[in-house]
Every structure is written in structure tokens, then in C-alpha cells.
Model the fold of this input.
Amino acid sequence: MALHSMRKARECWNFIRALHQGPEAAPAPQVSEHTQLSWILTCMVRLPRLQHLHQWKAKTAKEKQNGAMGLLTYPVLQAADILLYKSTHVPVGEDQVQHMELVQDLAQGFNKKYGEFFPVPRSILTSMKKVKSLRDPSAKMSKSDPDKLATVRITDSPEEIVQKFRKAVTDFTSEVTYEPASRGGVSNLVAIHAAVTGLPVEEVVCRSAGIDTAHYKLVVADAVIEKFAPIKSEIEKLKMNKDHLEKVLQVGSAKAKELAYPVCQEVKKLVGFL
Done:
């Protein structure tokens, strides 16, 4: 999981760097062992296995079958991120379970061919299994969704968050209930409300008795704004301290390299590269 955290930090830094210096600024630190192991693992997986993954099928359907190879092989890069640090447990959302099965298969396949080397990591499902789109409750909320009203971002202003929840798809029944199979839109709002407040779904529904869905959208929006406020505040502080961000990336990169390099070297020896 080390690269996952570093990648998120790097994405944050690239965003902040672009704001202040433009896209030509110097690149952030990288750990090349991830792509090296990813290529080795890619050589061990068959094309139909990757094409069967639901996220590939869903995204290529939206792109009219024009999916790029980077999208197809991205789950193998995820596997490299995990296996390179010999992780044993990985917290994931429900939508990543299939990708974790690929990680497990790759670990087992490598061990069968080259001897016991990688632990077979286990999935730890997070309590909030999947956040659905505000505009299409049948789909996952995604930062790449072309509909700007579908996804709530941590960096959104309170006004933007309120607007997005006002426009959230519900139904013609005004009562607030949690029935995912028949009332996907309202149930998604309840799930989000429960996640940001830390309350059980049943408690959220109980507290919302007598509130119509139009008013309830604003209640959820306020809860999200309150949850995001300290995070946004910290982001603003970090944006003002570029030297600190750069140092964190450099230190993190060095630590990740220290862990990743010997594992990658051993893998190369096992497969015959060294």
C-alpha cells in the first residue's frame, strides 16, 4: 500500500504544482520498480482474463470500444503495487474485489512457477462498499464522469456541493427510506449520509422521519460540507507549503525504493533476468 499513498500524494502535488508553476515544472519522484514488476506480471496473465474485468467492460462500453491498453493493464499495475511490498491485507471497496482476485491469482501463479515468494493478500472490505453517482444511482461515483454534477469532490466549494445534491436523482416518493433495490437514488443519499456522520443506516433513516427528499438532499449536503471542511482546510495549508510537500514526496520515494528494490531484484533473479 506504500505506492498507493505516495501516488495520491504525487497527484495532489502535481495538481498544486500546476496551479503555481504550470505543467512544465519538474516531475515528482518515482519508483521504477512498480512498472518493472508490472511488466513481468503482465507477461503472466492472458488477454481474456483482463478483458473479463467488469471495470474494463464498463469503461470501454462508454468509450464505444476504444479503450486503451493502459486501461486494460492497469489492474496488473495495481497488483504490482501490492505484491512489490509483500502486502498481506488490502482494504478495498466492493468495486475492487474482482481486481483483488486478479492480484491473488497472480501471486499464486508466480509462486507455483517460481516457488513460494509472494504472500497471497486478503481483501478487507471497507464499511462504505461503493458510493454511487448522484446522477445515475446504478453506476459508481467516478472522478472521470463527464457529468460534473455526478461526483462530489473534496475540493468543491459548499455552494457546488449543495448544487450537486439538489440535482441528485431520486424518485417521486418523498419519504426517506433505505431500499437499494427499488430506491437507488434515495438509498445512495442515505448511504453517503451514514458514511460522513458515522451513524448506522438505520439511525440515519430514523432521524430523517418526516423529512421529504427535497429537504433531505440539503441535510446530506450540509453533512458532507461539515465532514470535508477540515480536510479542505488542510489542503489549503499544504498548497501554501510547497517545500514541505516536495520533502514528503522525496522521503516517501526513498523509503518506497528501499523496500521495493530488493524485492524487484529477487523477482528478476527468479524469472531469469539477472
Notes: Strands lie at 89-92, 122-125. DSSP finds eleven helices and two strands in the chain.
